[in-house]
Amino acid sequence: MSFHRPRRSVRRTLTPVAISWVTLALILTGCADVETPVQPPELRESRLTEAADQPLPITVPLAPASGPGGPAWTLRDEFTSMAERIPGGFGGLFFDDDGVLNVVLQDVGQSGAARAALEQERFIQARRVGPRGESFNPSQARVTAGRWDYARLHAWYRELMRALPDPPRIGSINVEENRLFIGVADPGERKVVLDIAARVGVPPEGLRVDVVPALHSLSVRSKHRPVPAGVQTQYRALGMEPHCTIGPNVTRLGQQGFLVNSHCTRAFGEVDWDNLTHYWQHTVNKWYESPRTRHMGNEAIDPELFPCDENWQGCRNSDAALGLYASYTNPDFGRIARPGSRNTDEIALDANDPRFFIIQAMGWSLGGEVLEKVGRTSGWTGGQVVFQWGPNQEDGGCVDLTRGEAPFATLRCQIIVSVPDAPRAAARGDSGSPVFWMTGGLNVQLRGILWGMIGDCFPGSDGILSCDHFVASNLGGVEYDLDPDWNAPLQYF
Question: pTM (2 decimals)?
Answer without folding.
Answer: 0.82
